[in-house]
Amino acid sequence: MRWTKEQVKEHIKAVKFLERAAGEAFDYIRKNSRAREYDVQQFILKQFKKYRIKTDHPPIVAFRENTQYVHYYPSQYSRKIKPESLIMIDLWGRLNKKGAPFADITLMGYYGKKIPAEVLKVFNVVKHARDKAVKYLKENLKKGKMPTGFAVDKVARDFIKKEGYGDNFLHGLGHSLGFTAPHGAGVRLSPKFKKPLRKLVGYTIEPGIYLKNKLGVRSEIDFYSDEKNRVVITTRVQKGILKI
Fold it and tell me: How far is Cα 189 from Cα 40, in angstroms, rounded to an integer?
C-alpha cells in the first residue's frame, strides 16, 4: 500500500525517535561499564515507552562474537560489555497510532581504544555495498525506471562477493516497511523478488557480513521513492563505526 503524506511524516517521526533511542543506548553503554546486552535492550524498550514507540519485538543488541548472528536476542544472562567490544544495535518501531508505518535501523559501535583492522575492512565493504545499491536506485529512477528487488539486491551482493565475502551475506538486501510489523508484505530486495519496487512505499537497505565465531557487521537505512523519481533516504547513513 502506498504511503500517504501523513504516513511519510509518521515514518520520519519514528525514525527520529529510533535514532534518539539508539544514541541514548550507546551513551548508556559508555556510562555502564558492566552492562549486559539484555540491560541495553531493556533500556531501549524504556525509551520506546517514553517516546510512545510501538514495536512487535524487542530490539537486537549484540556484543563481540554475538554480532555474527543475523537475529540475536539477548537473555538476562547475556554478555557483559568489556573493552574492545564491537556492538550491533538493530531497532524498529512505529508511532503508537493506527496506520503509522514502521522505521527500522541498524547501527554499529565500538567500545574501546582502537577498532581492529578486520572490523574496519568488513564495515567498509558493507558500507560500499549499501551505497552502490542506493546509487543504482537513483540512476534508474532518473531514467524513469523502477528496478526490481532482485536487481537492487544483486548490485550489493555482487560487490560483497567480489570482495570475498559472498558466502557471508546471509539474508536479502532489504524489505518493505509494514504497519503491524517491520517487514511488510510487499516486494523485498532479495534474489527471489523480480517484481519492481513501488513508489511511496518504504523499504530498508541492510547489507551485512557475518563471520562465523568472529563478528558481524550490518548497516541499515530506510528509503522511499517519490512521484518525482527521487530516492528519499529517511534515516542516518552511517559512514563510520561509532566509537564510544
Answer: 30
* Cα gap 221→177, rounded to integer Å: 11
> Measured between alpha carbons, how far is residue 60 from residues 17, 54, 105, 142, 156 in Å?
16, 15, 11, 36, 23
From residue 228, alpha-carbon distances to 9, 60, 143, 171, 232 in Å are 18, 35, 11, 30, 10
Pairing state of beta strands 242-243 and 231-233? unpaired
The per-residue DSSP string of 9-70 comes to HHHHHHHHHHHHHHHHHHHHHHH-TT-BHHHHHHHHHHHHHHHTEE-SSPPEEEEGGGGGSS
Instruction: Give the pTM.
Output: 0.96
C-alpha cell at 40: 541495553
Q: Tens of pLDDT along 15-38?
A: 999 999 999 999 999 999 999 999
* DSSP line for 5-16: HHHHHHHHHHHH
- Which residues is 220 bridged to in the sheet? 106
Q: How many CB atoms lie within 10 A of CB 239?
A: 9
Per-residue DSSP letters for 168-213? G--S-SB-BB-SSSSB-SS--BSTT--SBP-TT--EEE--EEEETT
C-alpha–C-alpha distance, residues 102 and 203, integer Å: 10
Nearby residues of 160 by Cβ (< 8 Å), 6 or more positions away: 125, 126, 129, 166, 168, 169, 207, 209
